[in-house]
Amino acid sequence: MSERFPVPPRIQERALINRWEEYSRLYRESLENRDDFWATQARLFLTWDRDFSQTSSCDYRTGTIEWFSDGQLNVSKNCIDRHLVSRGEKPAILWEGNELGERKTITYRELHSEVCRFANMLTNLGVSKGDRVIIYLPMIPELAYSMLACARIGAVHSVVFAGFSAESLGNRIEDCQAKVVITANEGLRGPKTIPLKSICDEAVLDAQSVKAVVVVRRTSNRTEMKSGRDFWSEELLATASPECAPVVLDAEDPLFILYTSGSTGKPKGLVHTQAGYLLYTAFTHKFVFDYHEDDIYCCVADCGWITGHSYIVYGPLANGATTVMFESTPTYPDPGRYWEMIDRLGVTSFYTAPTAIRALEKEGEIWPEKYSLESLRILGSVGEPINEDAWLWYYNHVGHRRCTIVDTWWQTETGGILISPLPGVTETKPGSATFPLFGIDPVLIDDNGKEVSTTPGKGRLCIRDSWPGQSRTVFGDHDRFFDTYFREIPGMYLTGDAAERDSDGYFWIRGRVDDVLNVSGHRLGTAEIESAIDHCELVVEAAVVGIPHEVKGTGIYAFCIASREIRSVEEAEFEVKNTVRKVIGPFAAPDHVQFVTGLPKTRSGKIMRRILRKIASGDLESLGDISTLADSAVVEEIVSGRKR
Ligand code: 7RM
Fold it and tell me: Most CB atoms closer than 10 Å: which of 407, 484, 527, 540?
């Protein structure tokens, strides 16, 4: 049993919820009277154009999920307009550009005019309610403007992380039949320049649905523009009015689509809707980060992932917070980048991923030691399990033992955080996401599909019943939504993660039970990487597994069968890595590629990943029963050629 860390007194003193009894009473109430609980919160947190009469209507037997369905509101009005009276001159966004010293403050009033101009620009391009808009932008303020502009006119945005390749971008444009794509001429990340516009050109080549490509100028380099299709945003915005009335939308109208990887097939376009999502992100942002009016809140995720949607843009802005938008990398120009920014801006809450913490830990304590870091109160972690070592480093060297660490467990599907400490209440244990938030009822399911009622216990993590932030469907494929999350265990949402509950009731998330990998906090399917490798003409068959990786958490190991004789193994390995870079994006490139003559398969032809996983991670003693293999000689060959 690991050490427990009590709530630091100064955190407890000011916390919104600061007694365990208060948490447990509210938690019990939230489960006993779920609808009453959320109805109250919905009227506290959101401004409605029309009040709702029915709180929820959910049926996991069909995967039907509805919250506040006859209510009406506008998300951008909730994130901007209603703050103008009391917070007009308050910074909404503090933008930190790629270069040190490159920054911009956007007040709520400025945010209002920028978002209105973007909304009018989209309307002028023919975008209306329900139309899809793909946003392929780096972390610049225009990314937030674009998201909120879509929300203002009822268009459905789909942000694609600017590290994705032309093919990945093209697939998403095609799947959601986007009408407009918003991109930048180039992106800047640390020392690198990313040719976003030319990637986009390749992606929209066969896209019949795309009527216009809007290009934001990020750099002064020459940019190819196709007349009639491509438009500079600055030109379109010059004639766009800074006033735009928000469109009144139904609570269950779609707000955005976000593509996420699963164990099989192409990434799924998960759909989030208006009111439930906004309520849930605002609610969890407030309590998990113990948000107070004068806080400077900073989440360094990218808006291309759900963390950026929920905890850079929607949750914080709905609460009228000052949210930092960070374009650079943790180590550019040096590994003190975050810490310098925290001191300069007076950041009170800082939210990042274990992979970044591990990368900075490797650079040594000398970097955080240069700064005082005394404004910090809450340190968040998300994306993958945080190892004890990284947790302690974060706690000691960044938090100086005076901050609370909130290890927040959640998913693209959940919309917001489901399991996390509450800063003023929860004694933390390094590596445990601790306890469920209000309204969340986690359940462990054993291999026979039965509920594990013992404590301690372990099993597949499921959530009983719904919460407002939950994803509603997979765009264009509700059957897939149902099959993936609800078919197997009736009445439960199946998360795909394994978890343990220890004897004190703390939850420990143990990672995915399916073929999904968390590489540097980026979610990838092994099948997705394998099908990318199939694009390489040197390979006939590939099997991909995850291996422990010091910084990334999970690394990618690919076993490949060559299609013909290979002259240079090194070149062939490079070819495979490069193919994945091109097909998915650089962050998905395998760490190791091993050419083999065969793969271990069962007699029925299934690849035995269990064995490959063990070989790849060097766990050779316990290869287990290989008697069911069609050809056990391949195992010996693979073991002897293992990469490390
Ligand atoms: C927010 C996000 C979801 C998967 C999820 C887990 C893993 C996320 C934690 C975590 C352990 C955590 N969305 N995961 N947070 N595992 N502890 N605090 O990451 O859709 O991209 O990924 O990430 O496996 O299923 S995601």
Answer: 407
